Model the fold of this input.
Amino acid sequence: MAKRVPQRMCVVCRKMRNKRDLLRLVRRDGEIRLDAIGKMPGRGFYVCKDPACIEALWKGRRLEQQLELKALEPACKDQLKEQVMAEALRWQQEQAAELQRQQRLAKGETTVLLPDGRAVRRVIKDGNHKSL
Done:
């Protein structure tokens, strides 16, 4: 039986997604933090790693409403926005790299690390190794 994947809702677009595909922001001890592991205690909520959702979070008072705050300092808000955008960009780059890796595997390509540290791509067809 397959393991059940936890689902959470993005507070901006209201779509249910895998918990791993969302960022979690938490209010703890009067500070707002990006929860990288998703287990930090405190009042928290989830937002998509999509830049459009992240931008929409900072419009109006949506961030303050989700964290049940009266107001948030602009400097703190800007710093938090930079952290969230950086995390979303890192995630997008990882997704693109994984997609490229899967495409290479589908074509039969693999990367071999040589003892001197160089990486060589090879195509495997019918058990024969062919250097690219």
Summary: Strands lie at 7-9, 16-18, 22-28, 31-35, 43-48, 109-113, 119-125, 128-131.
